[in-house]
Amino acid sequence: MKLRLLTCAAALLALSFAGCGSENQAAEGSYRVAVIPKGMTHEFWKTVQAGALAAGDELGVEVVWDGPAKESDRAEQIKIVEKSTGRVDGIAIAPLDAEALVKPLKAAHERDVPVLIFDSGIRGWEDYVSFVATDNFAGGEMAAEELARLLGGEGEVLMLRYAVGHESTTKREEGFLKKIAEYPDIEVVSSDQYGGEEKQACKEAAERLMVRHTDVAGCFAPCEPVTIGLMEAIDGVGRSGDIKLVGFDASEVLVNGLDEGRIDALMLQDPYRMGELAVKELVAHLNGDAIDKRVDTGCTVVTKANMQEPEVHRLLYPDLDSDR
Predict the structure, then answer these.
(1) CATH number of the structural domain 136-268
(2) d(C-alpha 10, C-alpha 13), whole Å
(3) Which numeric CATH code is attached to 8-134+270-296?
(4) Are the CB atoms for 68 and 96 separated by under 8 Å?
(5) How far apart are CA 17 and CA 10, in angstroms?
(6) Amino acid 265: pLDDT
(7) Which end of the chain is more exposed for a tag (fewer CB within 10 A), N or C?
(8) Between residues 312 and 319, the one the model is more confident about
């Protein structure tokens, strides 16, 4: 994966011809943009990074990829936004917190640094240039429909939540609960417990739920670490393949779980396309082009039956080479 770097000579040449416009613009038609994920470790963000860098290479734009190490570190993400403001032509960010990031993003906007939101929304501020993301509420509804299908429309189910303040997973949880309530013979026995950002904590929370709800027939997990935690907890009580599990996102562990029958369905976003479109839409705005305020990157139900279909296979096994 490559970052397009400018030589000192090129930068000086650009400055000599720059009579107006952003002080950060390296050369006419060339920009430096910050892409700030929620975290740096999960497979999802590595795939977003590949898409963002590929778009940067295609457009001749320098993409600065930087985010907090953990998805719980709101303070670090705020620092990265503040550090980036004034050093880049635009910011694309997946906010860790729907409210805590408003102040620094508003400050960037007021300094004429356009902000594009991706993956998760923001509350109480509408001056971002576009929101590029999955329709997470609809994704949660799709997950409920799939779990209901797997259960034949009856039985006890539980949902293990992710973390407070994460707009994307909260929307999935809300969509799931709204849709599953339409099935009168399905009872939600738990929906108020949180797993958190760490896989081990998710596993421990899931294990507690398995002990309390011995008759549960189905589970929903709104993201990668929670899906892993529930899968391992179900294994631990010897009910793999018996309890139906619908999760979100893909990683090597989850894909193997799907192939082995330990997971019944995964709701897949398109993180590569999300990163790619985040950069392309932001650059289009910088070029003065009209862009949509909302860009939906889609969601797909993946089961063992369709996992080898070409488009599904691409989502399960993303190419992390930005030169794809």
Answers:
(1) 3.40.50.2300
(2) 5
(3) 3.40.50.2300
(4) yes
(5) 11
(6) 98
(7) C
(8) 312
Cα 225 to Cα 67, 127, 272: the distances in Å are: 18, 32, 19
d(CA 168, CA 158): 19
C-alpha–C-alpha distance, residues 63 and 44, integer Å? 18
CA separation, residue 171 to residues 164, 179, 317 (Å): 11, 12, 25
115-143 pLDDT, tens digit each: 999 999 999 999 999 999 999 999 999 99
Helices and strands, number each (H, E), in the chain: 11, 12
Tell me what pLDDT residue 13 has. Answer: 32
Integer Cα distance of 309 and 112 in angstroms: 45
Half-sphere exposure (Cβ direction) of 90: Cα atoms closer than 13 Å: 26
In the chain, ranges of CATH 3.40.50.2300 domains: 8-134+270-296, 136-268
Crossing angle of helices 167-180 and 136-151, rounded to 10°: 40
DSSP string, 43-90: HHHHHHHHHHHHHHHHHT-EEEE---SSTT-HHHHHHHHHHHTTTSSE
The residue assigned the tokens 């640094």 is 113
Beta bridge partners of 219: 158, 245
Mean pLDDT, residues 171-197: 97
Lowest-confidence segment of 14-28, 197-211, 249-263, 304-318 by average pLDDT? 14-28
Lowest model confidence (mean pLDDT) among 15-29, 122-136, 250-264: 15-29
Please name the amino acid found at residue 146.
E
Apex 278 CA angle, 56 and 298, nearest 5: 125
C-alpha distances out from residue 147 to 73, 140, 166, 235, Å: 32, 11, 23, 18
Query: Can you tell me the distance from the alpha carbon of 301 to that of 148, in angstroms, rounded to the nearest whole number?
Result: 13
pLDDT at 147 over 50: yes
**What is the per-residue pLDDT across 276-303, written as a single tens digit (0 to 9) for each?**
999 999 999 999 999 999 999 999 999 9
